[in-house]
Amino acid sequence: ALRDTLSSLTARKRELKTDEERLKLSPIDQRARLKEQIRAHNEEIAAAEIEIAELQKLVRKGESKLQEVRVDLNDQRGEGGLDDADKYDKLLSQEKELNAFIDGFDGSRAAALNDVAARKDAIVRLLEKISRNLLVKGNVPDKARFDAMRGELEYKKTQVGHATATSARLEEEKALRQAELEKIGTLEEKIATELAELEKKAAALNAEMKGFDDVDGLRADAEKTKARLERERVSYGQREAATRELVDAKVKAHDAKREQLRSNAAYKELEKLEVKMRVLEQGNHGMREYVDAREAESDVGTLMHSVDEVYDELNALLQKKAAYA
To answer: Does the pLDDT of residue 115 top 70, yes or no?
Structure first.
């Protein structure tokens, strides 16, 4: 399939190249070439017709010869000449050849006729194509008209460029104006919101101003408020005194507990253990650094176990101290 496509494309390429070369010719040269092609096709058609006529003559001659051979065979059979086997085989072979020629004659004749018809169709198509090309070439403008059209085209291109630039500039201005309108819309909403708030504040201030007109009522409210605040001051003072007494009692009890703990042997022992624990913590930190450095060289599992026991013991003592406190 690809090979057939390649062949058809190659043939189409040759045909297009031939058409291109033909279009480059003047109408007179094209007409001369067309006449030459028509003459060549006519010669080929005449040759094909002559060949067909000769083939028809050969067919008729073969049929006549075949008839003669059949007559001879019948005569020989009647005269008892059947013993001549070689002659019979030769005649039979000639008959087969003639039959084969006759059987293939129709196909050859049809192929030749098809070729003639195809050539005639090609001539008609070629004439139509040349006629169209001549019409097109007749409508082609001359150099002056072509230069004028090219100038007009350049002018139109310039105008289109200006129009495109103007359109782009207008689009940018439109976008800017749209953004400004959106900002104005936002400002209007903000102004409307602020106006509503100001109206509410103005209404509240007006209500308050109306209240200020009643001086006696304001004085009475102020006296009531003063009395209420005085009562609250006295109440809060009493609460403060009671709270202070309670705090003093708690402080005294706490100090007594602290003195009692300081005089307690267990507390003193805890303080000593706390100091000892801090010392052991420092030693434990140094020991851990030493153990980490020497862990790959020696087995310090037992020592680490002892240190952990001491650390757990100190931790338990600290927890007891915290519980006593």
So the answer is: yes
Retrieve residue 197's tokens. Answer: 């708030």
Q: How many CB atoms lie within 10 A of CB 31?
A: 13
- CA pair distance 270, 318, nearest whole angstrom: 8
Helix (H, G, I), strand (E, B) or coil at 1: coil
Region of residue 299 (phi > 0: left; psi between -120 and 50: alpha; otherwise: beta): beta
CA distance 301 to 305: 6
**Are 25 and 33 in contact, with CB atoms under 8 Å apart?**
yes
Alpha carbon distance 112, 56 (integer Å): 13
* Residue, of 4 and 37, whose pLDDT is higher: 37
83-102: pLDDT as tens digits? 455 666 666 676 677 667 66
Letter string b/e over residues 169-205, b meaning 16 or more CB atoms within 10 A of that residue's CB: eeeeeeeeeeeeeeeeeeeeeeeeeeeeeeeeeeeee
Rounded CA separation 196/164 (Å)? 48
Residue of 246, 243, 310, 321 whose CA lies nearest to 279 = 310
Distances (CA, A) of 270 to 72, 97, 190: 156, 140, 71
Left (φ > 0), alpha (ψ -120 to 50) or beta: where does 80 sit? left
pLDDT 10s digits, 266-303:
667 777 777 777 787 787 777 777 767 766 555 556 66
End-to-end CA gap in the chain: 104
* CA 296 – CA 286 distance, rounded (Å): 17
Of 270, 201, 262, 29, the closest CA to residue 193 belongs to 201
Q: What is the pLDDT of residue 81?
A: 46
Residue positions counted in the chain: 325
Q: How confident is the model at residue 139 (pLDDT cuts 50, 70, 90)?
A: low
Q: Which two tokens stand for residue 237?
A: 């003072």
